[in-house]
């Protein structure tokens, strides 16, 4: 299978810890009905979907690359995953106090670098509305859950 570019794909890699009312839990432990801490407060998780990719290009984020202890540990994200910036980068790059951008736009080759992984298990979290969650200390944007008709 050829390398997969993830410019359009979003999600959270297995092992990434997400803040919930029960504390920081690995994303793979979450299920619909759990209460996740968001910028808007505790929200009910409506949907969890999983995608497994092979030979995929991702962005590797070094500890502290997005702020003090953000992320807390090395983090792997698909290129299209929106991250919230609320530091000097938002002002310098976008002229605002806060910006939500795909992580691929932040690649600098040192602290945020594109790399390839043999396998990537991505978890997409869905809520009633768009939310910003805390994953290993990084603010990640999540889209509303899709409803099957």
Question: Mind explaining what this structure looks like?
Answer:
- This protein is mainly β and 149 residues long.
- Helix content is 5%, strand content 46%.
- It is built from 1 helix and 12 strands.
- It has one helix at residues 88-94, and strands at 12-13, 17-20, 23-26, 35-38, 41-44, 47-61, 75-77, 82-85, 99-102, 112-126, 131-135, 138-142.
- A 4-stranded antiparallel beta sheet has the order 1-10-6-7, with no helix packed on it.
- The longest helix is centred in the middle third of the chain and has 7 residues, at 88-94.
- It is globular, with a radius of gyration of 15 Å.
- The N and C termini lie far apart (33 Å).
Strand percentage lies at over 45%
Q: What is the distance, rounded to the nearest whole angstrom, between the alpha carbons of the first and last residues?
A: 33 Å
Question: What is the overall number of helices?
Answer: 1
Order of helices and strands: EEEEEEEEHEEEE
**Largest sheet strand order:** 1-10-6-7
Which structural class is indicated by helix and strand composition?
mainly beta
What would the principal axes of the Cα set say about the shape?
globular
Concise synopsis of the structure shown:
With 149 residues, this protein is mainly β. The chain contains one helix and twelve strands.
Topology of helices and strands:
Elements lengths: L11 E2 L3 E4 L2 E4 L8 E4 L2 E4 L2 E15 L13 E3 L4 E4 L2 H7 L4 E4 L9 E15 L4 E5 L2 E5 L7
Antiparallel strand pairs: 1-10, 2-3, 4-5, 6-7, 6-10, 8-9, 11-12
């Amino acid at each position: 299978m050829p390398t997969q570019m993830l410019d359009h794909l979003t999600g959270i890699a297995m092992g990434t810890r997400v803040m919930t009312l029960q504390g920081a839990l690995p994303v793979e432990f979450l299920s619909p009905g759990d209460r996740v801490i968001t910028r808007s407060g505790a929200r009910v998780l409506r949907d969890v979907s999983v995608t497994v990719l092979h030979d995929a290009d991702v962005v590797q984020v070094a500890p502290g690359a997005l702020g003090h202890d953000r992320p807390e540990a090395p983090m792997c994200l698909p290129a299209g995953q929106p991250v919230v910036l609320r530091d000097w980068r938002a002002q310098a790059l976008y002229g605002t106090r806060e910006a939500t951008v795909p992580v691929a736009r932040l690649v600098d080759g040192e602290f945020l670098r594109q790399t390839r992984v043999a396998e990537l298990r991505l978890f997409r979290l869905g809520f009633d509305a768009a939310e910003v969650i805390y994953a290993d200390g990084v603010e990640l944007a999540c889209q509303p859950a899709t409803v099957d008709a």
